[in-house]
Every structure is written in C-alpha cells, then in structure tokens.
Amino acid sequence: MDNIKELKQPANKIFEHITSIQKKLDLSEVQFSNSVLTHFPSLKSRKEEGLVIYEKYGTMIKRLRAAFGNRFSDFRNLEIDFNIFRDPFNTVVHQSPDHLQLELIDLQLEIDMKRVFGKNNLVSFYKNCVRGKHPNLAEHVLKIISLFRSTYCCEQFFSKMKHWKGKHRGQLSDQHLIGQLRVACSSMKANVPELCKDLQHQASH
C-alpha cells in the first residue's frame, strides 16, 4: 500500500457516476410516461407544435436504461464492497462479507479513528490507520483500489493476448500465456540481471 498514489478517480467514484446516470434515466422514463419535459428544454419548446411523440422518446430512454444496466452489471455486483471502502464507519456490518465483519465492528467503535477518517482522504486514511490493525479490511481496500478505472488497460491486455496466441506461437500454453501477460501489463520493470544470475550459461557448439 506504500506505493499507492492519490487516485483522481477510484473505482467507487466511477460507480457513483454510473449510478447517477441510471437514476436520471429512471427519472426521465417516468416523466416521459407522464408527458413531463422539465429536463428537456429543446423538446419542451416544440410541445406546442405537437411534434413531441412521448411514446417514442420514452421507449428510447427505456432501451438506453436497460443497455446501461446490462453493461455495468459487474459494477452493481460490487456495490457493497464500494460502500465499505467509501465509508466503513456507517456500513451495516451484517450485510458485509463475513471476513470483514469483526474488523468493521472494531473499527466503528474507535472514536479517534472516526475523527481521523473525516479529516483525511480515503487512501491516506487506509494507508496510515487501517493497515496492520485490520489486515482483512486493508486487503479489501487494495482490491478496490486496483480495479480498472478505464477500458484502456483491458483493451491493451486483450491486444497483447491476441498477438501472443497467434498462429506463429501455437505452442504457447495457457500457463505461459498468463505469465507473459502479467509481465506485459505490469508497471514494474523486470530486473533481468537478478533473474538470470543463477542460470547456467549454455555453451555454444
């Protein structure tokens, strides 16, 4: 956790943006069904001309809402994990994963820790106050922080996998592929001299 820098947009923040958009789509669907155009000024200006087809736009919003929900269903499955990360002091313990429940109870009863939590950003709080005292919670935090915050890493990952699994490298096993992809997508540089120092050199024939 020492190497973690301050995150501009951690995964829980992305989830908040996604939830906000979904709730706005829910609101829009209800308003279209009631012929309300409060948040659609351009359509509202055409209302008197009789050019607004409420059923058409309502159906479009409904489809967009469904597509949005399906696309980000994985994020929705992590909602409890995000809530624990965002505010462990107000998390409902019995709704939390079993391995975090006892540590959450201990943490929520530490008044000084709660005071520190309100004065620090999340990463600083977990790095300086939680690690060591609450190992399971610290592990949970690392999982949330390490989540992809964009599709770039995923696209880069699959592009490299497609290259390595091509016809020119047909003998590459799945186990070797996992190792190569881990090295290729890591931000850490391999210490090649250290890795090779104990290897026996092959004499030329």
What does this structure look like?
By secondary structure, this protein is an all-alpha fold. The chain contains twelve helices and no strands. Helix 1 runs antiparallel to helix 3 and helix 10 crosses helix 11. It is flat.
Features of the shown structure:
205 residues, mainly alpha, 62% helix, flat, disordered N terminus
Structure classification: mainly alpha
**Spans with pLDDT under 50 lasting ≥5 residues?**
2-7
- Let me know the largest β-sheet: none
In angstroms, what is the radius of gyration?
A: 25 Å
General form: flat
H/E element sequence? HHHHHHHHHHHH
Q: What's the number of extended β-strand segments?
A: 0
How are the SSEs ordered, and which strands pair?
Layout: H1 11-33, H2 41-45, H3 54-71, H4 73-77, H5 79-86, H6 98-108, H7 111-117, H8 122-130, H9 135-145, H10 152-164, H11 174-185, H12 192-196
Short description:
The protein is mainly α and 205 residues long.
